[in-house]
């Protein structure tokens, strides 16, 4: 039974030694248990080549330890020092325009550079040797936010050599590659692996198969880079959890694949910053500017719980205005508390605030923290303290349960549709969110997983919108399932090599749904395909024209007489991009058919179950009445007149008892 | 008398040999006569340096021939294979930022690279030797879509050397160049031709004279590149028509000049893709999203008929959604048929669909075709078949007649106003379209030609809006004409060297119209210059202030008292950019004065005469009544209640007979 | 007592010698006194290395002199000739992407290139030797529009070496630099000055301290470049005023610093071009499209009067449509006259029109002039003549008086907030204009100065919105002042090294205003913070949360209960970005408190005092009644029914006498 904890990110190297003990004392005082340190500190750990200085870090960790705090130790490989870069300038990544990405901020390295990878082995080994057995060290973080600032892809010489090698291992013969990519088209045929180029700076778009393989290669390089560190740490610091802090709305490498080398996943949750950067409407952004998108964090909590095979953290939690969004408003009072509770409700083991004290210098000086730069408490300081108290009162701990509903999320699908959107606004992430929101508005628990048999096993409802290609084991898993299944739009529309399936889309899914897609079209903004009379909603952005086989029937038609939702027993195929109304209608219908219990929720209310403990959150600007969900008597936290940013909690079995 | 034919583009190298005969049989079955093959196939024709393989292509051509199909053979020079590029990497074009444009798609070559040009001579020679006398080969296509993906201009070393040489040949002395360009300005004077740079990466805009000469040079390089191929083909394959497939809305080289080395012009017509990419309003794009701009194809048909001196084809016709526009909707039912008939009505010899079967791989896998990737017929398959039947029923053939009305179209003018728009939205192409649409709405036949005496000879109405400079022979041709002439805005406003004429604009046109332009202004969106009372419409984007000479009179004034339309006998000068209303008013007035018969047409109806055969097209979403144009009894095709995408045809003399 | 004069820019090298005398005669005839020549003429002054040709220029100057005209002689260093560039190609600046900025327009040099600087020493020395004592030469202009086309910053090898050296001189030890920049953050610590890089092409944003120092260095390089020329000229041409022609809305180097090496400042005033390029709303741009922003020129007049320590010119005045704005409309009739009078009212010594005759060639051929290319008078010719007559009638001369109100303008603050806007639309220039407009609408005289004790001495009202950091001497000056002072938003929020002050913002200003800023937030468009009941207006874009000390009180609160305007005696701090309404309210309140007399002006009316002479201008499209300001009897110029573009003038003491 994992106790749920609060923590904070701390940079002792930014502050005088004299302040450390007081900092530790205050952390403990407000109920923090976990402190992340060390990532970014390479220039202090090794000020010049081979001259290590671990004393200051040991002292810092000891100080934290003495106050009863646990430590997450980060490897400093996201920020190689200048002397290292100067010793091998070709370790820098190269952007798609062919320009080296220079020293002067962070993440200035190419994942394919073996020389740099060996330097990382070295510093990680030394760090793990020094601190792997330290009693305060409870966990490790590899590097920091892999891929941030578009650093997954590099067009360097090292990447070129690596990609050629990767292709050789994958295809074995150049003929196989030519065949897989369809290189006969436009005379792109190659006669050796040495003729392969990176897919940048082509005259017009490169071959999608080429682009997809390059993205797969780039993702694999990140996975391999992480694994070297994880293996080293594991050997010197056994029994400690190894984590990485992933990001939101970031898909350039396969997080499921990388997570297989971790003990738990973590992500950095900045609700307001992400909202400002999102593709949502201006009205939506204005409504939620101080509390964030009610479903965005939720989605990532579920995603990273899937990545971590149940184990996950929030490694960085927004404490106030940040410095990196187009606009950086202050959170509403209570929002910082709300976010933490939603994470714990989703099963987070630990939520760490970023960061303890606002740095008065350098790039992130406008990023707030629990303390002001002058050490006065900021607003989040008090909200964190309140959360700590409430966690204690609830004896909060992780209660894992498998959700009835699963959404299949596939990184390759996102790559594929970025490579070939076909309509300018076709976004896999937005499509997934369209369905995720509908499910969340229906008040059900949702798991998110990769396209595997394991993901779909033992579910009542399975959604796989936009799934680029359906692999053999997934199809087998689906075939063995009694669940209601929804595929489409665009599901199964490509082979693994980014070709159109021989029997037309949905390709391998045809074994589940007897139809073929004869035509697709993308729709300009404002162009819609209404459903037939009596059915609310419409398609937008994308629609498909189906030819139904004998086994399939029309479950819903569009007004122009085409099949909009096809049905084969408990398997469905949706032939377009639903607007919110249609998404709600389809999802509701399938939930009923699947026998999943739903709740009718007011507009801005969301609910979450951590095992038997149900949380209710108010993301709206007005007080909401949740007495249809629970009575005041049953509440462990909050009240039925739930104010803006309000959080309520109760045990579900208390309802039944009543 | 040229019979009008349907054809298709076919890539035998993309499919198993076993499928070829069946493909040929089905093509013939639905009434296709012409098949384009071979462009892009270099890597199959010469898999390694000097190792030719023509057998497969001969077999393909033989197979088509056996089914009674004619072949258009394309030269494969748009897609040099990787081994060739690796043998001379400096053959790649260089973009304006100085980056090589790499292998991996198509058109990866610099027109100025002599080494590559020699390789093209070699492969074209071999191809022409092999197939020049083949009985199936009825025509040739040089390369493919010259200039596509902005490939006319290159900033390579080869281009620099070529440009210096071009300048030397044009100006002979550097002093003459300095004088022509006005290089005394900003100390840009050069002391030798070796000091000339390409006009990219300058600190602020380069000298317009420099830019214009660079565009002329770049255009000349394309013309020369094509001519080498045409000369070779002509020597080995006499009697076969040599064509090139031009594009829509593309002006970076002089298509009239290049066409002089061809036997007929051709273009690739994608109505929906071009509409989505066009500068039209969102409302316009939404209205016509499934049928295309009613005047865009029409304009290009007339333009390329002009390029081909009467002989022209559609080499690629859109068959369904394409893959390259921002959004790619499906055509309305009947649109594919409508487009073909409009092309034949405009005198096309042949219309080829692109392509026979949708490729399931590589860059264009989302581009539809007559067949689905699995060989099932797609919608266009049936519409093509219908068109073939209707052509037969009409005994359709090309009937050439010189139009009373001509619009002068000048590639240099487009370059000039792109170089010096003076107002952000001054677009030569849009200006020309403003007048072209007004003429087409008036139901008249229109020719389009270059600014030559031949173009303007024997006309009733001549329009030359925006003509950058008026050359001596054109002015002489105009002087000798009895036609009504409309010049302006901006006509004759520069000398050949991109200077302001000594006696002010309209320069050489002053011999026809006695006025000078003392001032021009560009107008921000929303700023308009209304006409005086009783005259509908206004100027927008651009207006000029005229000083009239003794011979000139005000034919229309603006509300602020300036001359808006000046008249000297049957010569007119329009002092601004007319909105649609004003364009209609001016054009109507001039058509009446010129004695050209006009028709009043419903909003979305357009008409076309192929000699004595008049076609009527409905581009709108509602059925239109065309009984004011013809009775049902007179119709060879269609009905007077013309449905959306409807086509009607009748012989004009049948009306008179009545 | 400096007589106010009209002048013109003239390029004798563009025209036949035979035309010069006639040109001079006509200039004099319409009342021009001053002619600027020579800048840009390097290729004529030194056609090949070391081969000087000064004869033509001497002849031109003699010709002007003979007609009684004074000459401003420009150094030609903005346009080095091709042979010079070819002799040292690394003199070209390099853009932020790493590309050399090539020959072919102007300003193609890097300020840090010592080789080029020596070439400039040479040509300037020779020019000064030749013409320094010529009786016609009344003044000099160094170079031309330093920084135009983003040329202040260069990322060349020369700039890198220069920047390292600059840092070494500033910080002495690398430890000091690491400390100042906070390089411990993200392991950016450096071990020697040779490790410093330029802040371009970093993976994500560079350190703001690094960026600010690079901008300071770049600015210093411009200042040093100018000083070399000024020193040379001063030694060979003593007693002549040395000027430079600055630009509008341009802040990339410190104009106050550079001006210290000049005798007078000058700027190039293009009201319509600047309006089109401005961030104002479309409605605003449409209203003023033919007369310009009523406050933009005014602001720059005041700014450059501050730069010139009272002495300033308009070196280039727009005469008609220009060639470089997105749209280039014609000025309203009378606008050219209005602009000149507003400049003289602001104390300009000389206003020169750009240019005498429109060039028919090269980049600026669409830029109008007093004469058309064919030497006919254009509209501005007549308006200039009228202005000259009116100046004579008024016996116009410069009357200097110190304004009661001063706005502190700080170039570093603009750099700082461009580096770290924190909200996408935070613009220092727009913030300053918000306050400047409110002051000008109140009809008061305004000085603008740098953040020094001298600037703030002897004032009644001092505004320092957005002032990045407050230096010691400024704070002392403010402390010693009895003026009403308004600071905020964002004032004093950083240290000189771009860190947050130890005691929080407003840092050093806390000695004046007893408060600290605990939080800031940026607000998306549409998000506003209304003032409490009874107070009109709101904050937008930016707001701050204050903690007031014992000495401070709330002078105005926002509706959400925060302090919006804090007061400590006569010192105020505004906690946000005011909309126009709030800006007017705050400014009015402070003007009253400061005892500054204000005027209630109709919407588009502006007033200006040149000492005792008050001018009234009508920038609106309708006739305005200004009889509340003056009676017709008192007017020296104009009438109380002031038409569009109308100018009135009267002596203020004539009112008192009445």
TrEMBL record, chains A, B, C:
Q: Does the keyword Nucleus apply?
A: no
User: Where would I find the Glycoside hydrolase family 42 N-terminal domain in this sequence?
Assistant: 9-393
Enzyme class, spelled out: hydrolase
InterPro entries xrefs: Beta_galactosidase_Trimer, Class_I_gatase-like, GH, Glyco_hydro_42, Glyco_hydro_42_N, Glyco_hydro_b
Question: What keywords appear on the UniProt entry?
Answer: Glycosidase, Hydrolase, Metal-binding, Zinc
**Source taxon at top rank:** Bacteria
List residues of the Beta-galactosidase trimerisation domain.
Answer: 403-596
Return the SUPFAM superfamilies for the record. Answer: (Trans)glycosidases, Class I glutamine amidotransferase-like, Glycosyl hydrolase domain
Reactions catalysed: Hydrolysis of terminal non-reducing beta-D-galactose residues in beta-D-galactosides
- Sorted alphabetically, which Gene3D superfamilies does this protein's record hold? 3.40.50.880, Glycosidases, Golgi alpha-mannosidase II
- Signal recorded as keyword: no
Q: Which PANTHER family match?
A: BETA-GALACTOSIDASE GANA (PTHR36447), BETA-GALACTOSIDASE YESZ (PTHR36447:SF2)
Q: Which family does it belong to?
A: Belongs to the glycosyl hydrolase 42 family.
Q: What is this protein called?
A: Beta-galactosidase
Identify the species of origin. Methylocystis iwaonis
């Amino acid at each position: 039974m994992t106790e749920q904890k609060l923590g904070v990110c701390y940079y002792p190297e930014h502050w005088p030694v004299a302040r450390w003990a007081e900092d530790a004392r205050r952390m403990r005082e407000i109920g923090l248990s976990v402190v992340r340190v060390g990532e970014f500190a390479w220039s202090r750990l090794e000020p010049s080549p081979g001259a290590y200085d671990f004393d200051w870090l040991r002292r810092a960790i000891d100080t934290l330890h003495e106050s009863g705090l646990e430590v997450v130790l980060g490897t400093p490989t996201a920020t190689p020092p200048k002397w290292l870069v100067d010793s091998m300038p070709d370790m820098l990544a190269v952007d798609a325009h062919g320009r080296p990405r220079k020293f002067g901020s962070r993440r200035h390295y190419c994942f394919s550079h073996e020389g740099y990878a060996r330097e990382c082995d070295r510093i990680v080994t030394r760090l793990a040797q020094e601190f792997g057995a330290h009693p305060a060290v409870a966990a490790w973080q590899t590097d920091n936010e892999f891929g941030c600032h578009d650093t997954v892809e590099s067009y360097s010489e090292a990447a070129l050599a690596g990609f050629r090698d990767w292709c050789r291992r994958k295809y074995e013969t150049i003929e196989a590659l030519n065949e897989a990519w369809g290189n006969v088209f436009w005379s792109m045929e190659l006669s050796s692996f040495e003729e392969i180029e990176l897919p940048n700076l082509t005259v017009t778009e490169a071959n999608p198969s080429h682009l997809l393989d390059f993205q797969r290669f780039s993702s694999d390089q990140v996975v391999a880079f992480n694994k070297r560190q994880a293996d080293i740490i594991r050997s010197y610091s056994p029994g400690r959890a190894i984590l990485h802090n992933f990001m939101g709305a970031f898909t350039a490498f396969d997080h499921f694949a990388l997570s297989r080398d971790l003990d738990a996943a973590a992500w950095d949750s900045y609700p307001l910053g992400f909202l400002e950067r999102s593709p949502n409407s201006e009205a939506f952004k204005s409504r939620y500017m101080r509390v964030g998108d009610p479903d965005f964090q939720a989605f990532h909590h579920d995603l990273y719980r899937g990545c971590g095979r149940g184990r996950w953290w929030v490694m960085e939690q927004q404490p106030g205005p940040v410095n990196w969004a187009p606009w950086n408003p202050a959170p509403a009072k209570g929002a910082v508390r709300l976010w933490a509770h939603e994470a714990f409700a989703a099963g987070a083991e630990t939520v760490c605030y970023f960061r303890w004290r606002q740095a008065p210098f350098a790039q992130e000086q406008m990023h707030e923290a629990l303390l002001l730069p002058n050490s006065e408490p900021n607003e989040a300081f008090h909200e964190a303290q309140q959360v700590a108290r409430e966690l204690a009162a609830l004896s909060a701990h992780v209660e894992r349960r498998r959700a009835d509903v699963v959404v299949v999320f596939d990184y390759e699908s996102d790559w594929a549709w970025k490579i070939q959107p076909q309509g300018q606004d076709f976004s896999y992430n937005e499509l997934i969110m369209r369905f995720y929101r509908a499910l969340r508005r229906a008040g059900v628990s949702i798991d998110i997983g990769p396209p595997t048999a394991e993901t779909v096993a033992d579910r009542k409802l399975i959604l796989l919108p936009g799934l680029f290609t359906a692999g053999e084991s997934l199809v087998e898993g689906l075939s063995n399932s009694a669940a209601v299944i929804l595929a489409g739009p665009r599901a199964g529309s490509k082979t693994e090599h980014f070709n159109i399936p021989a029997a037309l889309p949905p390709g391998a899914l045809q074994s589940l749904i007897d139809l073929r897609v004869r035509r697709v079209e993308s729709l300009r903004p404002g162009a819609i395909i209404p459903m037939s009379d009596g059915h609310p909603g419409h398609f937008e952005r994308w629609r498909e024209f189906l030819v139904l086989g004998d086994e399939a029937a029309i479950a819903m038609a569009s007004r122009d007489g085409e099949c909009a939702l096809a049905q084969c027993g408990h398997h469905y195929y949706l032939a377009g991009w639903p607007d919110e109304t249609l998404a709600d209608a389809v999802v509701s219908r399938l939930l009923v058919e699947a026998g999943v219990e739903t709740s009718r929720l007011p507009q801005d209310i969301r609910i979450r179950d951590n095992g038997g403990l149900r949380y209710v959150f108010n993301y709206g600007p007005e007080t909401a009445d949740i007495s249809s969900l629970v009575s005041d008597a049953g509440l462990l936290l909050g009240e039925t007149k739930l104010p803006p940013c309000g959080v309520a909690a109760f045990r579900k079995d208390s309802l039944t008892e009543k």
